[in-house]
Amino acid sequence: MKLSNTSTQLHVVRILEVLIVAGLAVVCTPSGAAPTMDSPAAAHATRTAARVPIETRITSLHTRLQITSTQESLWQPVAQIMRENANTMQTLLRAREDGASHMSAIDDLHAYAQIAESHADGIRKLTLAFESLYNSMSDVQKRNADQIFRNEGHHMGRKG
């Protein structure tokens, strides 16, 4: 089955959404506002990220996407960007948490903006790397990837 360019782009975008969520630990409350680090949502995200280290998520995703030896050179940049994104998010979230008790509302908004900007930068980097990998996949692999992300979506980090 040959996918149209638009269809392929939509599949790539969907898969990237899940990769970003799996690789990045940015948490928002349902209203879209940044939670305080002592909120239940932030605590849950921290516990989830601690239970499923980035290396475990990367290994699981590699296996489940059935990356072949010929695709390994395309997978490695994806995995490295996931590591870098996770490290960046962890650093920014920790800094925000450490300063939360003395931040003004403006300081908090600036910190959250920095997290959001880093998240967007990470998405851009990951998009470029993952698109090359996705385009190299067989139709069977693409359908598998689509199904993995469609069915598990943003819960991948918890399922490891």
UniProtKB/TrEMBL annotation:
Pfam families: LTXXQ. It comes from the Bacteria. One of its GO terms (cellular component) is periplasmic space. InterPro entries: LTXXQ. This is LTXXQ motif family protein.
